[in-house]
Amino acid sequence: MNPTPLTDADLDRLEELLEAEIFAGEAMRLDEIQAMLCAAVSGPQPVAPAVWLTEALGSGLEAGGNPDVEAALELLMRLNNDIAAALMAGDTIAPVLYPLDESCETYDYAAWADSYIFGAGLAGDWYDLAGKHAEDLSELLEPLFVLNGMLKEDAEKSGERWFPPAEEARLVADIQENLPVIVQTLYNFWRNKRGPASRQRKSPGRGATIPAPAAAARNSSSAAAVRKN
């Protein structure tokens, strides 16, 4: 258990700090950091804080002693601990999402999915490390590639059939609703790979299932998205 979990006020303060002048616009948004950390704490091997903090804060991280940097570092480490504790306990994560426009009717799930995939690349090559279970991993990651549009792009480039608009909208809505379970299932995948000692709870279901033709659109470019970071 994290002895100092973040409050709503802490998260508001972290959002403000990420926009501080010292970071010169290089810091990631809070939603992006949360997604990156979900992947980083889930993966097959640890990601050193120095690695993900550099990605989160950019060159502003080098300004040691600056009060805004120090405050951001403290809150980010607590955020990392919160995410790790929640996933370990099987409590799932409530994604931080920002609206795409002022109407606040649609939210930027694509940015969240992109950042998760980016975070996966910080822990080495997930597909190689999954070994004989690489195909299972690929299926678990597919919903994220739907959210960020990559699976659709792959299908169109390869001439594969894609969903009619109404069916695509239903699929995306289902994935959005099940995103916390998808993230938890990916965590459980790697926890189970690490061995019996780390298994504490039964894995939840896979969440959203990607039917054909999306499954047929899976190809090496999706794998490369995880490998290239």
Word description of this protein:
It is built from ten helices and no strands. The two termini are 30 Å apart. The protein is mostly helical and 229 residues long. Helix 2 crosses helix 4. The chain is globular. Residues 197-224 have low confidence and may be disordered. It has a domain at 125-227. 34% of the residues are buried.
- Beta fraction of the residues? under 5%
Cα separation of the termini? 30 Å
Number of helices: 10
Number of E-type strands:
0
Low-pLDDT residue spans? 197-224
Biggest sheet features: none
Radius of gyration: 18 Å
- On the 0 to 100 scale, the average pLDDT is 87
Shape estimate: globular
Report helical residue fraction.
Answer: 55-70%
The quaternary structure here is single chain
Structural class: mainly alpha
Order of helices and strands: HHHHHHHHHH
Short description:
This protein is an all-alpha fold and 229 residues long. The protein is built from ten helices and no strands. The two termini are 30 Å apart.
